[in-house]
Amino acid sequence: MIDALMNFDFMRYSLISGVLIGLIAPLIGAFIVVRRLSLIADALSHVTLGGISFGMFVVTVFPILTFINPMWFGILFAIIGALLIENLRTSYSNYQEIAIPIIMSAGIALSAIFISLADGFNQEIVGLLFGSISAVTKSDLTTIIIIVVIVLIFILSLYKEMFILSFDEEYSKVIGIPKWIQFLFIIIVAMVISASMRVVGILLVSALITLPVAISMRITKGFKQLIILSVIIGEFSVVGGLVLAFYMNISPGGVIVVLLVLILAITMIYQKFKVSSMKGDVKNENRRSN
């Protein structure tokens, strides 16, 4: 692994990207899960695939545009999809969750169309679906770094507003938190998903956003603790997944998600055992007192 990092640029790009994604995906995921918008990551990931496949189609039709990274089309489509979701949530005030399957369906449809027009499935598309160690280019890494900086500035600058918005959207309106913060947040989510897809894969990116938070919620009590532990778990799973995927010569996305699922299962089993043990201690104590 060390030799590969020393000799191959793509390995260094993948590892650096993985560390950065392991930071921002669970970080933004904490706010998404608390707002009960976990499925939004799935919807936007499919829209992102539609944008990337559109970019590939454009390059196929206009070879002169090969200098344009299809990832930028993915980010553009994801942002548009995020804004449409927010708009639909406003339109269907009593059935806000319907916005997510609408946009997800549109994203899947666009992906199917543009993948077919761009000469069908190829190795790059498969890498985007499930993640790939060799898929991260220097251009992708630069884009990911820019997105990480934007995400950190957003969270650090508007943490208080986002905290209130996440836990009580109605109260945030009462105290006058600007509507643009909510729209900006949804755009940030779209950018994080676009940044994560190269390493984790579009079909699995939502797991990296939500699973570390789901694990941390079973352990922590405060929101800041939730964020910190989620990031630690995210970093462990991404770096561990990349290392295992390298030695096993498989897509890293699946390994990363399996690690997260195992951590969640171990956490739940431990807690169940702990509760059973505590109940047993209480029963024994009652018997002694009787």
Query: What about the largest sheet?
Result: none
CATH homologous superfamily classification = ABC transporter involved in vitamin B12 uptake, BtuC
Query: Any idea how many domains?
Result: 1
Return Rg in Å: 21 Å
Helix-strand category: mainly alpha
CATH topology: ABC transporter involved in vitamin B12 uptake, BtuC
Q: What is the CATH domain class? A: Mainly Alpha
What is the distance, rounded to the nearest whole angstrom, between the alpha carbons of the first and last residues? 62 Å
- Element string (H = helix, E = strand): HHHHHHHHHHHHH
Helical percentage: over 70%
**What is the number of strand segments?**
0
CATH architectural group: Orthogonal Bundle
Number of helical stretches of at least 4 residues: 13
The parts where pLDDT drops under 50 for at least 5 residues are none
Mean pLDDT figure? 83
Spatial shape: globular
Estimate the strand proportion: under 5%
Membrane topology: Multi-pass membrane protein
Family: Belongs to the ABC-3 integral membrane protein family.
InterPro entries: ABC_BtuC-like, ABC_TroCD
Protein name: Metal ABC transporter permease
Tell me what the structure shows.
The chain has helices at residues 2-7, 9-34, 40-61, 70-91, 99-117, 123-130, 138-157, 159-167, 169-174, 179-200, 205-217, 223-248, 252-289. It is an all-alpha fold and 290 residues long. The protein has one domain: ABC transporter involved in vitamin B12 uptake, BtuC (Orthogonal Bundle), CATH 1.10.3470. The relative contact order is 0.16. The model has no long low-confidence stretch (mean pLDDT 83).
